Amino acid sequence: MGIRKPVVAANWKMNGNKQLVTDFLKAVADxxxxxxxxxxxxxxxxxxxxxxxxxxxxCKDVILAAQNMSQLDNGAYTGELSAQLFKDVGCNWVYCGxxxxxxxxxxxxxxxxxxxxxxxxxxxVPVLCVGxxxxxxxxxxxxxxxxxxxxxxxxxxxKDCFDNAxxxxxxxxxxxxGNAASPEIAQEAHKFxxxxxxxxxxxxxxxxxxxxxxxxxxENAKELFSQPDIDGGLIGGxxxxxxxxxxxxxxxx
Length: 253
Ligand code: PEP
Prior knowledge:
This protein is 45% helix and 15% strand. Helix 5 packs across helix 7, helix 7 (142-157) packs parallel to helix 8 and helix 10 (218-225) runs parallel beside helix 11. The protein is α/β, with parallel strands linked by helices. An eight-stranded parallel beta barrel has the order 1-2-3-4-5-6-7-8, surrounded by six helices. Helix 1 (18-31) links the parallel strand 1 (7-11) and strand 2 (38-42). The chain starts with 6 loop residues before the first strand and ends with a helix. The structure holds phosphoenolpyruvate (PEP). Residues 11, 170, 175-176, 213-216, 234-238 line the site of phosphoenolpyruvate (PEP). Substrate binds at residues 11-13, 176, 215, 236-237.
């Protein structure tokens, strides 16, 4: 996987509990999975404080991420959670624009760009998630969709926005369906995304880590992760099974 340190990130979505936090961290620690790769855990926000404490005693290397975050600093926004609140419970990374936020909660690319900027302003590493729907792919519009999602961030955040950031290609049709993109399709999209970054800043394109997400399992992880422009994965369903997650991490080495 060359000069870029692989990343394997767990996204528990609205699942999990304290027991799973402990089991997950023990499985990662016992397997030595975090040697030479960045392992990221994103449990529901209510579990973050507990996860931080457990992480510090069981497996210090694991990075904590928020699944979503407000674009605003603080104030009268009932139910929202800010960058500073996440930092207070040990988060260093945050996912921005996960497809479920875009499609189930109507987050526009402009709002996602504001969240991305807010993350950077507060010293959190944003993981910008992009990906086309099945219909867009069928109509030959996959790359124009990726372009518009990435340009929305560049337009608001500037040409050096991807320094100290992560990108994740997550085709909507592959998330939670059991139907992962083939290594060839994923590589083609990752190459396209890296090319977009290169057109802006060559050096950044060589360093930025681009993760693949969408039905990654122990059985398909190795082939996906061995593609030249795939630097690891964003894992949903399989990250709820500590044993499977650890196997996926081993495939990233
Ligand atoms: C995700 O939620 O980002 C994801 C990739 O989910 P799954 O692995 O379940 O497809």
